[in-house]
Structure formats: structure tokens, C-alpha cells
RNA sequence: GUGGGAUUAGCUCAGUUGGUUAGAGUGCCAGAUUGUGGCUCUGGAAGUCGUGGGUUCAAUUCCCAUAUCCCACCCCA
């Protein structure tokens, strides 16, 4: 029996993991600058949380969840996204009494049972932020500026921000009626899928990728043009705030979002290097969600960023991330001096240095080869001479230069190097 | 759930119009005289040719099924 990683999952190995660590580090750093604290939550939740939170009508809930009964008969689900869990935790832990707004960030894996393709996996990684308790557009813009800064810190050359407003339940209902009326005469020209959507959720017709549907909907009324006064003010305010911060964006009336909880502001950062899954990051406001999950009516906004897609984009733009650190010193052993080498090696590690030594009883030549391949900066051979004199030659593998150092001063020497 | 392409050594790939011991490059291990790497040379280990059936005297090669990978539809991060 030969085992392999389950479909849609993959192993992340060194040195590739260095890029992941770097991204996580930078993300956490940027989040903290904006006052976000890290939240860590269970990987699975009660199934009903996602049904209610994400929305029963969404593809995610209808066909993509990893749902299973536990031995106590509970129905549990591997999280398909991060927001529902955070909101559950917000309500459960009474965060409404925390200083407002509550700002949280996370780095998680999420799970969706989908067919795999470029930029899409069954287990995938997300960075996310949630800001709960602020209703005005300033927090929307702040969150977007956080993302801009993050992308910049990662070295991404250009990131395209698209924003839209999908209104609130009130104006959305009015708009849906309007849209249905407008679409009705064009119905025969739409694809099969959109025929369906016309009944279930006409909003989704707007972001259909079929060219014939786009041809029809290009002229269709947009939600953003039919907002109620409050939603319009919010959308105007958002644009003002973005302008104040000097952030460039385009209004894309086709952005609809596939999760039910979004209201008003929705936005995406897109790329052309991630296959047809161009969205690196998607987010929006969810002013009704906290209530849906059992809390008091509270506004909120958040985003999720696909880490696989981010790293693909970095790669496509030829951006290097810092390589994994290599050992400073390889302590090579000549002759019968293993014990001294082990002792010295541990002493240097205790002093905070990354040091390796031979564990396989290899020839000196083989040890040198190994040190060269592993990217180690220095080698010191520990043999009869060194054991007797208490000093040795520290060889710089890059320059091939050797300097004489006393073994009891090695730490000092290497820490300075 | 639906299509298309792929699957041969750790990795990247040749190959067999069906025939006996399946190849290369790279990587790995070792050696090229005594305690010093990257270049070069030599040698070695490593494959049930994705898995299961079928056709055949004979299958890695042809047929069917299945799994996985890649890409796309759908949808999303």
C-alpha cells in the first residue's frame, strides 16, 4: 500500500516553507500596526453555524462542506472560511463589551470539497481580518489600506483593487425586483445557468463569465446605481476615504460575492497569474451577520486572502522572499574527537548559534561537501591539533579564507560575523 | 457534478511499430593516497513502467475500468 496526500491537499516542504513563514510574519506585523490581535479558533464548528452564517443557498454550504458526525452524534464541519467562526467567538465571548471596534486577524487552513485546479485546493490557507463594531466607511478604507500595505511589504508590484456596493437588505430587494423586470425580455439570450439564477438569485447573473450573458448584462442596471440613501452615503464615504489615503481603485459593478452575509461594501484584489481563479483576496461588510449568529445587531467587515494565490502571484512577478536561514558553522570532525565536537556544538547552540556537526561518521571530505551544499558560512575542523592546542582554523566557505580562533572564543567570533 | 491532457528511478523526462537483463540527465552515496567543499573523472544504490482486470504464446507498450496529478466549466481564497 502506497500512501499519498489526499486529493486537493499538498505537502509544504522546506525550503518552500520559508516563503510561507515570511508571508505569515509580514502579515502579522502589518496587522499589529493597525491594532489587530491574533485569534485562534477551532478547525471545525457545529455544522449549523456555517449553514446560518455563510448561508444555506450558497455553493459552499450546499455542496462543498466537509461535514461529519462525531461519536456523540453531533454534526461538525471543517471550516470552509474564517468569518463565521470569528463571529461565533465574538458573540460567545461577549466581545461586544470590549473596546470597540474589535479588530482580529488570523492565519488558518480552510476546507472545501471542490474539484482542484490552478489556485484552488480542498485544503487551502487564508489570512484574514475582521473588524467588528464600526459602521462607518472609515473602517472599510482602513482595512483596505492594511491590505495595500501588506502587499507593498511583500514586494508586490501592482495590485488591482476593485470595489462595489451591493446595498443592504432593503435596497437589495428593490433592486432585485428592478433587475428581474429588466432581464425578463433578455431571458432567452442567457446561458442555462443564468436561466436558473433568474429564479434563485438574479444578482449572480451580473457576474456570469459567459460572454453572451455579459453582453446582455453590460447595460443592466447596477446595484450601485440603485442604493438607498444610507447605502449611497456609505459608498460615497468609502470612496472619499480611499481618496484621502491615496489608494487607487476601480468600481466594478460586477462584483457580487458568493457568500450570503455581505452587505454594502464588497471588494477584491485580483491578479492575472492565478489561472482563472484571479481573486487573491476578497472581502466585504457583513452588517447582518452577528445578529444571524445570535448576537445583538452589530456591524462588521472583513476579508480573506488566499495564501496559495498570493504566493503564486509573488512567484509570477519574480519576487524573491528571504531564504531559509542556513547554519553559521559546520563543525567537521577529523579522527577520534566526536565527544568534544558534540560538546562544543551544543555549547554554541546554547549561545544562540545555528551549528551543525557530522552524525554519520563520514570522511572529512564528505563532511566538507555536505557543508558546502547546505549553505553553511563557516567550517571548523576539530581534530588532534585543535584538541591539543585549543584553537583551530575557521574557514569561510565563500571566500575560502581561514582565520585562527581559540575554541573558547568561537561564540564571540561567530556572533560578530 | 461535467469535460480535456497526463502518470516510466527521489526529481525532470526518453523509450518499446507488443518480444528476453527498461534508459538519460539531475539528485543521493562512495572513491580519485595521508586533515579541507563547489569544477572534473570513476563507480554504486535506486523502478512490481500509477492500480486492477482483459486481449495475446508474450503487455511498460493494445483495450476497459479505477485512482491521482494538471487544466477548464461551476463557484470561490
Q: Major sheet, described briefly?
A: 8 strands, mixed
Residue ranges: pLDDT <50 for 5 or more in a row? none
Compute the gyration radius: what is it? 28 Å
CATH architecture of the largest domain: 2-Layer Sandwich
Mean pLDDT, rounded to whole units?
92
CATH C-level of the largest domain = Alpha Beta
Strand fraction equals 15-25%
- Assigned CATH superfamily of the largest domain: Bira Bifunctional Protein, Domain 2
Shape: elongated
Overall SS class: alpha+beta
Query: Count the helices. How many?
Result: 15
What number of structural domains do the residues give?
A: 2
Could you give the count of β-strands? Answer: 16
* CATH third-tier fold name of the largest domain: BirA Bifunctional Protein, domain 2
Q: Distance N terminus to C terminus?
A: 50 Å
User: If strands are numbered along the chain, what order do they take across the biggest sheet?
Assistant: 1-5-6-11-10-9-7-8
Helix content: 25-40%
3D architecture notes:
With 417 residues, the chain is of the alpha+beta class. It folds into two domains: 17-168 and 228-316, Bira Bifunctional Protein, Domain 2 (BirA Bifunctional Protein, domain 2, 2-Layer Sandwich); 329-416, Rossmann fold (3-Layer(aba) Sandwich), CATH 3.40.50.800. It is 37% helix and 21% strand. It has 15 helices and 16 strands. It has an eight-stranded mixed β-sheet. A five-stranded mixed β-sheet has the order 13-12-14-15-16, sandwiched between helices. 37% of the residues are buried. The structure holds one RNA strand of 77 nucleotides.
